[in-house]
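Field reference: sequence -> structure
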Amino acid sequence: MKLWWAALAFASLLFAVPHFASAQTAPIRVIVNDVAVSLPQPAEVRGGAVVAPLAPIVQAFGASTQWDAPTRTLIVRGVSGATLRLVVGQTTVTAGDSRWDLPVAPSLQGGMVVGPVASVLRGLGAYVKQHDEDGTLDAVSQITGLVWRGDADGLTVTVSATGPVRADGGVLHGPERLVVDLQSAVIRLKTPDTAIGSGPVIGVRTAQFHVRPYVTRLVFDLAHPLPFQIATSPGTVTLALGAAGAPVASAPAPTAPTAGVSAGAAPQAPGVAGTHPSSSPPAAAAPSGTATAGAAPSGTATGTGQVGHGAQGPASSAAGGAVTAAAPATVPAASGTAGDSGSAQVSTSAGGTPEPVALPALPEFADGPGAFHVQSVTYDDVSGQLVIRASQRATVTVHQWTYPDRLAIDIADGVFRDRRTDVEIGSGGIRNVVVSQFGLHPNLTRVLVHLNRKIAYTMTTADGGRTVVIGFTDAGREGPPPPAVIIDPGHGGDDSGAIGPKGTHEADVALNIGRMVKDALERQGTHTVLTRTDNTTVALEDRPDLAQRYGGIVFVSIHANASADPTVQGTTTYYYTPQSRALAELVQAEVTRALGEQDRGLQTARFYVIVNTQMPAILVETAFISNPKEEAMLRDPAVDQRIAEAIARGIEKFLAEQSQMTSH
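Structure field:
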C-alpha cells in the first residue's frame, strides 16, 4: 500500500497535481514549511496546475538552484539528495537516470523560471496539499526514516526528513516521557510504534500531532532519568539520549494525565529552545536547562513508560535498528468522536485514546481557565435549523463556497474540546456537518456544512449571543439509505499509491478490483457502493463519511502492498476493532486460497479508514506491487477477477454469519 518515497513512488509524487477550482479568483498562496512564500509575481493556475516562480519556493524548502543559460535548464538540488533538471519549454523533467513529464512546461518570465509548483516540490520529497476553500497550496517536509544506535554513553537517534524541520523537546509526567515535536513535518514512517530496548529507552511512538501547522510528534518511553540533547541540520534531526556530559535540566512536575502513555499529550518543556537548520554540532547548554543562543535544547526525562499499542519494530540493543519509511500519502486529517447521527448532537466530553491519524486533547494553553467553549452543535430536521451553543457571546463569520457547495461558520476564539466531530444529517439538501478546532494561536472553531446543493440560509442569535441559529430553506430530510457494502479502492486522483517496477499504479489496480467486487456482490443481490468510481481524488477523511452516508454495514478498503525489498510477497489483511476480525479472517482466507501466494496473516493497524469507520472494516493488501512476479499478476485482468470474487465470497460469508447470529 505504501512504499519508501525515494524508491518506487518517486514518479507518483512528481506528477500528482492538485487542481484548484476553475472558479478560483482570489490570489493563490504557496505555503512552504508553514510559512507563506513571498513571490516576485503571483501564482496562477495554468493547465490545471498551480505555476509560480520556482526559485524562491524550492529555496524555502531548503533546495539550491542553478541556472544553466546555454541549455536553458534550471537545476534544483534538494535536501534529500534529489536533483531535478527542468528545461524551459519542455515538459520532461530529469531526475538522476529517470525522466518524466510535467503537467505544464516551465517558462522564462522576467528572468525567472516559472513552473508547476506541486510537481517540483513533490519531486524534492515534499508533502503537497491544496486547499480549495482558502486558495492555498501547502508543502512541508516528510519524516521518512528513524534509526538508532546504542553504546556505553547512551542512545543516538537520527531522524531523516525530505526537507528542513525544526525540533523542540520537553518532558511529560505520569508516566514520564521525553516528547520531541518536529515542526513543519508530516510523518511517513511505516511503523508508528517501535520497541528499542536499549538501556533506559524502552521504545518510541510517533504520530501526526497537528495539521496546519504540521507537527510530527515522537514520544520516547524511558526506564529511568537521563539527559538529552537535540540538534538539527538540513534533512536530519539528531537526538542524543543519555550522552556523557550532557547537561541536566530541572523539570517541575506539571499537571499531566496519570493514565497510559499517549503520543498526543501536550508536553511540559521547561527551559527548552527550538533549534534551526544548521550543519554545526550542538553547543553545550546552560546548567539550568535553558539553551544558550544557538545551543541544542537539553533536559531530563524520567519515568517507566510503556510502548503504545501498534505494530512493533525489532527490539534493539547496542547494535541499533531502523524504522523504514512508507510512501508519501494523504496526510491524516483531524478527527474526533463522532456524534450521535440520530440526534445530531455533538458531545463535548473528552475523546478516547488518540491515534496517529487523530488529533489529541487540546493543549493547556488553548483550553485554560475561562476559555470560550463551543458546547454543542445540533440540527433539527423539522425546522431545518442548525443550532450552535457556546459558553459566552460568540463572534461569528460566515463563508460560502461552491464546487462543491459548503457553508463555514467560523467562531472566533472558540474552543471545541472534541477537536473534530462529524454530524450526519442525511437530508436532501444537507449532507453532513463537521465541527472542528480549526485553529490555535488564536483559537478558532469551524462548523462546516456540506451541502448537496445551494440552499438559502438565515442567521440569528439568542441568549445574549451565546446561541447562533442557522436556518436553511427547504433542506428536505430524506429517509435512511438502504444497507450497503462499501468498497473503498485505495488512493486515486493525485495519489497514485505505490508504483511497481513496470510502472503499474496501485490506485489503478485497486479501482479495477473494486469495480469487480461490486459487480460480484450485486450479482448476488447485495447492494454495494464504491467510494470512488474513477481515477479521482477522494480525501482520506471523506471515505468513512461516505460509508456512513451511504448506509454502510461493511467496509472493505482494497490496496496493493509494497516494500523496498522486491522479493517480499503475499497477502495481508488489516483490521482494528474486534468486530472486524471475523470479516478479516474470512476475506484473508478466500484471497490467499484464490491467489496461491504467501499468507502473511492478519494484522491490527490504525489506518485512518478502518479506525474512523463505524461498521466492521478491513483493509486488504492483495499482493506486493513491488514484487515483479506479483505485479505481473496484478496487471492480469483474470487474476484481478479472481481476487475480486474471493473478496466478495468473504464478504458474503461474513454477512451470512451475521444474519444467522441476529436471527437466533
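Note: The chain has four domains: 10-134, 141-323, 334-478, 484-663.
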